[in-house]
Amino acid sequence: MTDLRTTVVVITHNRRRELLRTLDRLAELPERPEVIVTDNGSTDGTADAVARHHPEVRLLRPGRNLGAVGRNLAVRDVTTPYVAFCDDDSWWAPGSLAGAADLLDRHPAVVSVTARIVVEPHGTEDPIVRELRESPVPGPPWLPGPALGSFLAAATVLRTDAFRKAGGFHPKLWLGGEEELLAVDLAADGWWLVYADHLTIHHQASEARDATLRRRHGIRNTLWFTWLRRPVGPALRRTVDLARTVPRDTTSLLAFTEAAAALPWILRERRVLPAEVESRLRLLEPVQRASKARRYTG
User: Of 78, 96, 163, 219, whose CA is between 20 and 30 Å from 261?
Assistant: First the structure.
């Protein structure tokens, strides 16, 4: 069942054990995808372990932690029409990469396909899945699944050329909700993003993570995205709403302070979304406020 349509891109930093498990699972896939790993400056021997245990993997060593931009670096080397992102603590289920490629083949206006996320070791659905399945974003009847306003990088297959044309992940956002800006820019280019319930990716969260830093970056990136792309009125409302609802702690204060310090470059790069894309974001706001699965801002 070798499938030459999709390359898997993984970024990693100091998660040697988890990454090797993921690469073992990817090597077992019937699609036999090419895999590119960007090692974001690991100091625990991750890169050497990959070279030793998985010599078939294309390994990139930029020498520093690029965050999500490590994915951009890897996509430069992708020669397949589709690219599947995967975190170092997650792996695609057999047949799901081929299934996503089939959807993209059949629907040329769809740019991304996000899969159902199953949390291991217990095999339960991630709480975010319900929100993806019940997305309020309206879409044309021919879409192969619910239309989305954004995507989850660790569970999504995208068109390689569209990703490159949109500029990939913004270098200043690093990690933490970095997908939202790219998603709306793809939508502004006329693409549709969809969820596919019959595709699956497994996620076994690594214990090697800094949840505090991730939340700080998530709040900051939400503010930056809002100020970069939303009209003035919705941007002000979203900012006030975040200020009211995030935890009142040092992490949130640092996030708002860091976000405000970036206003000069934000104003230089600000580009308001087309009205039809902005209308989708307004439909998503009640869901975001009520979400019990928000990973960063709640």
Answer: 163
